[in-house]
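hey can u check if this looks right to u? its 154 residues, i copy pasted from the old doc so theres a chance i mangled smth
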Amino acid sequence: MGQAFFYHLTRSPLEVTLPMLLAKALQAGWHVIVRGTDPARLDWLDQKLWAGAEEGFLPHGIAGGKHDDMQPVLLTTGTETPNSAQCLMAVDGAEVMGAECGALERVCVIFDGNDEAALARARGQWKALTSAGIAAQYWSEADGRWEKKAESGG
């Protein structure tokens, strides 16, 4: 059964934190689904990922292409995992279900700490996932570096 990691963004924006987390997931040998809620926002993230540093290139695509199954990182608003992902990164309040956590190595819930609605949504997801027996960790960058602030055994 996988774990859920919650990343509370307070200093670095999503377009900085997401590439760092994606690189770590790819280093672990995982395929990744980045699940969002808005296709336009995923297009924006796609452009940010393409514009990243050459040495840190992150191979990826947006769902709906003919090679979705081959993408190491696939951006989508859907719940499918055509690339046989082992990791799900939920952004912008995208829903994560406890049942799908069991089929993955890791779920990352990335939320904006400057947005009260995003904070409330993340708290609700933490409660739902830990109540479903999913082990979870809460990470914050409030002090300028990432620190684990809480953990639940599930």
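The domain at 3-152 is CATH 3.40.50.10110 (Rossmann fold).
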